[in-house]
Specification:
The protein is mostly helical. Among the domains are: 1-51; 53-184, no CATH class. It is built from 13 helices and 2 strands. It has helices spanning 2-17, 30-39, 53-70, 84-100, 105-119, 140-147, 162-175, 178-182, 191-203, 212-228, 231-239, 246-267, 269-300, and strands at residues 23-26, 48-51. A two-stranded parallel sheet has the order 1-2. Helix 3 packs antiparallel against helix 4, helix 3 (53-70) packs antiparallel against helix 7 and helix 4 packs antiparallel against helix 5.
Length: 303
């Protein structure tokens, strides 16, 4: 369904709107992009594939969790182990490096490896060669270097254990490939599309059957609300000849103001920290559930 829909959109864009889609932002599924390439909607003109940074960032977390799952002994408690917190940190830093260096692949690669070697550094073997220099660096080692205080500097966190480094390094090698990071230039995202999809599903829930006409109307309404707010609905009603009363106008204004206020709250640092804490808590809960399931399976096999 997705392949047919996107192919139809690209194929009709020139005849219907007189424009060509130059890029396709994907989420890692190559089938849809291959469908566009095979359809060749613009003849010899090719469509460039871009990666959604959010989905690329998730790959790091998935790969590290799988590495922890399939390599016994690198997870759990202990110094230098691959814990859920370290996985979350490395995933978050990987996404940040792509977004902060979205205009240069070389800088992106250097920043990605800086996060890995930073986690592997110790007082005996500091590996901060890729970390940014200066007092404004996020790396405390580089800050101490800029202040001339390296002799007093001590790493306050233990480095990743050698067996953990050996498992994690191939993951970084794969996710810092030039071809992958080239598709991340520009830090494109599908968040806007996902937000629009969520709004459509609010009007026409996925768990309830709806015909094509209902889905079409829901999509039109969602596009209006997404771009213009609820005030756009009153404009349509006015165009259709419906009179808009004072109470309706007040309600629309209240909904739009509440929507904007909610967006501003979500952009605040307090809200961001709360979301990060919630994600870490959920990840830790999933980890404990996996341990519980493994323990139950162990005893079940021996019953």
């Amino acid at each position: 369904m997705e392949i047919n829909a996107i192919t139809e959109m690209f194929s009709r864009s020139l005849n219907k709107y007189g424009v060509k889609y130059l890029t396709y932002i994907g989420d890692g599924d190559s089938k849809t992009f291959n469908g566009i390439v095979n359809a060749a909607p613009y003849g010899e003109s090719t469509v460039v594939k871009k990666e959604c940074v959010g989905h690329v960032e998730k790959r790091m977390g998935t790969r590290l969790r799988n590495a922890k799952k399939f390599n016994k002994g690198i997870g759990g408690k202990g110094t230098g182990k691959l814990t859920d917190k370290i996985i979350n940190d490395m995933t978050k830093y990987y996404g940040l490096t792509i977004r902060r260096h979205s205009n240069c692949v070389e800088e992106m690669q250097k920043a990605v490896w800086a996060t890995f070697y930073h986690k592997c550094s110790s007082d005996q073997n500091p590996q901060h060669q890729n970390c940014p220099k200066g007092n404004g660096s996020w790396c405390k080692y580089r800050q101490a270097e800029a202040k001339g205080e390296l002799s007093q500097f001590r790493h306050n966190k233990p480095p990743l254990a050698p067996q953990v480094q050996a498992v994690v390094k191939p993951v970084y090698e794969d996710l810092s490939r030039t071809d992958l990071l080239t598709r991340c230039v520009g830090a494109e995202t599908q968040n806007n599309n996902e937000s629009l999809n969520s709004l459509i599903w609010t009007i026409a829930p996925k768990h309830l059957h709806s015909g094509p006409k209902i889905i079409e109307i829901a999509t039109f309404l969602a596009a209006i609300i997404f771009n213009e707010g609820f005030e756009g609905i009153t404009k349509i009603l006015s165009t259709l000849g419906c009179s808009i009363g004072r109470i309706a106008n007040a309600y629309v204004q209240h909904r739009d103001e509440a929507r904007m206020a909610r967006s501003e709250r979500r952009l605040s640092n307090v809200a961001k920290e709360a979301r990060i804490a919630a994600r870490m808590e959920q990840a830790a809960l999933r980890g404990s559930l996996r341990v519980t399931v493994n323990i139950l399976a162990f005893f079940w096999d021996r019953i």
